[in-house]
Design brief:
This protein is mainly β. It is built from no helices and 8 strands.
Length: about 80
């Protein structure tokens, strides 16, 4: 969703942790003001692995992934981020 207060797009808000096991989730071609957004998120047992494809013009505040009270901000795409469990 778009978060106007910092001009960012928030990824995977409200996704249950159980959905991230195995292949996880993938979003393909989500329409945004900056173009289509595609990303995947999975749990590899040690990390959450977030991969964002290129092809989107990022908003001023970038992309934000909230997880367990912390936020990871993505300011360049493509991107692959590993977040320790």
């Amino acid at each position: 969703f778009e978060r106007p207060e910092d001009e960012s797009i928030v990824l995977a808000a409200g996704i249950p942790e159980a959905w991230l096991a195995g292949e996880g989730i993938a979003i393909e071609g989500l329409r945004t003001p900056g173009g289509p957004l595609s990303y995947s998120l999975r749990d590899d047992g040690q990390h959450l692995v977030l991969e964002v494809q290129g092809g989107i013009e990022l908003p001023k505040g970038g992309l934000v992934f909230p997880w367990k009270g912390k936020e990871t901000r993505i300011t360049r795409v493509p991107a692959k981020i590993e977040i320790p469990r």
